[in-house]
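[09:14] KT: can someone run the structure on this one? pasting the chain below
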Amino acid sequence: MKKIAIATIAAITALAPVTATSALAAPGYQRIDNHRGDYRGRPDARQQRQNGYWAGGRFYRGEPTRAQRSARDFRYDYRQWRRGERLNTWERGHYSRVADYRAYRLQAPPRGYEWRRTNTGDFVLAAVATGLIMSVILAAGN
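[09:31] RB: done, structure tokens below
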């Protein structure tokens, strides 16, 4: 009887670190490889809200080049859209045009403007020809 109890306690003790580590490996969390192989409570970079990046001490929107990604101070970041800024050609090509604006309870765009939905869920009313932003509706949450 004692041998069974000791074997059961030994099995539970041996499996405890495995179950604790796998519980922390929830989706959206990245594994930090160190000598223990544990997880940190930081969301994965792909799931963080971002619409641009820093490189060379300056904020850019759009897709970074290989040289910018290899810069020492490169990092992804998020900045709120502002009225008067412009959507560049990359953003106008990659952000989806909102054709059914009523489904999102948006006002009808004036002539020469269109609604665009960004990769962060924000709605931007921008001029078709120049990309000049007239209005911004920021996504809730995220």
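[09:33] KT: thanks! Residues 49-79 form one domain.
[09:34] RB: yep, looked fine to me
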